[in-house]
Design a protein that fits this description.
The complex is a heterodimer of chains A (312) and B (61).
Chain A lengths: L1 H11 L8 H7 L2 H16 L7 H25 L1 H4 L17 H22 L2 H22 L6 H10 L1 H10 L4 H24 L1 H7 L4 H4 L2 H24 L5 H23 L3 H38 L1
Chain B lengths: L1 H13 L5 H41 L1
Chain lengths: 312, 61
């Protein structure tokens, strides 16, 4: 009796917000957001006539906040499995610093503000694409695919690959083949990147009931898929040069990086046992980050240099 | 008078008492919201000026 009354009293007690601003910032998944900023910037700079710096900055900010809002809504929905996985159990909701309702409200408000701002600052095509990106990441990937199919990150990867298209649309008011090539690079990069992590964290995903490829099809099949995607990605990474919207320097750097990525993927395929297998998967995971960062850095730098030379 | 005093004391006892950390976090949240709103206002102001100046230059040219 006393226990029951205690429970009722506890549930009636007002919840005191305890979160610091840093907890709200963590909801935005800052590391993912930084990747989005970088790839969207490449999309903006790829436009035939890049926008005024203030408009470009405001557009980039809106895209970044939209990506952050997706992260907050993802953490709202996934707080149950985040609490189980070692990689995510220190996030603000499972750690008890934020309630799910607070995260949901934060994500929805930021989504609305980001789409509205991008529409007013740039154009409504870009705003519509940003809204679609948020919808795809939260509803299609997080709510539907992630817990139902081992192809979750293959299809869901489209959400992470869209920022260059959104950025280009914000700058040019249309979509183009060049922005689709940047989309294709990120889209093909996502599976080998996340599956190499899944090879290392398969126990975590298994406990949480997330059907990642290593848990469903086994590690060997995953290593084969990683290798195939990496081998397909290497030539796609060179496409910006082959199609004439990046320099020879980009062509050389992307070729070398592509060979490096393919070599890491082949090593991951061949090393299947013990510490050597973990080492190969870990090396592929980190090299894939360096690969994507390098390609987009070169694209951004050479576009900035080109624009600087053009305006001076 | 005595009843009112009792009521005030009772409310004070029943109210939510924040710890110093909670008060500190609330203050930080309030500052963060204030800064974010100020930045948003500033951003929209600058964007408006840039868009207007472009339109004026276009119509004058």
């Amino acid at each position: 009796m006393s226990d029951a009354s205690f429970v009722i009293e506890e549930s009636r007690a007002p919840r005191v917000p305890v979160a610091a601003p840093s907890d709200y910032f963590a909801l935005l998944k800052p590391r993912v957001m930084s990747l989005v900023i970088f790839t969207a910037l490449a999309g903006i700079l790829m436009a035939p006539t890049p926008p005024h710096p203030v408009i470009g900055f405001a557009s980039l900010l809106a895209i970044a906040v939209g990506a952050g809002a997706s992260g907050a809504l993802n953490m709202w929905y996934e707080s149950d499995i985040d609490a189980i996985m070692s990689r995510t159990k220190r996030r603000p909701i499972p750690a008890g610093r934020l309630s799910r309702e607070e995260a949901l409200a934060f994500g929805l408000v930021l989504s609305f503000l980001a789409v509205l701002t991008l529409g007013l600052v740039a154009n409504w095509l870009a705003a519509g694409l940003l809204a679609f990106t948020i919808f795809f990441y939260v509803v299609i990937y997080t709510m539907w695919l992630k817990r139902s199919t081992p192809l979750n990150i293959v299809i869901g990867g489209a959400a992470g690959a869209l920022p260059p298209i959104v950025g280009f649309a914000a700058a040019a008011g249309e979509v183009s083949l060049s922005s689709f090539v940047l989309f294709a690079i990120i889209f093909m990069w996502t599976p080998p990147h996340f599956w190499s992590l899944a090879l290392l964290k398969s126990d975590d995903y298994g406990r949480a009931g997330v059907p990642m490829l290593p848990n469903v099809a086994g590690p060997d099949r995953t290593r084969l898929e990683i290798m195939l995607y990496a081998l397909a990605l290497a030539p796609i990474g060179v496409l910006p040069y082959a199609m004439g919207f990046a320099s020879l320097a980009y062509g050389l750097i992307s070729s070398v990086c592509g060979i490096g990525l393919a070599a890491c993927a082949v090593a991951t395929y061949r090393e299947r046992e013990g510490e050597a297998a973990k080492h190969a998967a870990r090396r592929l995971f980190w090299f894939s980050i360096i690969y994507l960062f390098t390609l987009f850095l070169v694209l951004v730098v050479e576009r900035v240099l080109h624009l600087t030379a053009f305006t001076s | 008078m005595a009843i009112e005093q009792f009521k005030v004391q009772h409310d004070e006892q029943d109210g939510v008492v924040l710890t110093s950390e909670q008060k500190q976090n609330r203050r930080a949240r309030n500052i963060a919201i204030g800064v974010a709103v100020a930045l948003l206002v500033g951003l929209f102001y600058v964007v408006t000026i840039v868009k207007l100046s472009g339109a004026v230059a276009h119509s004058a040219g």
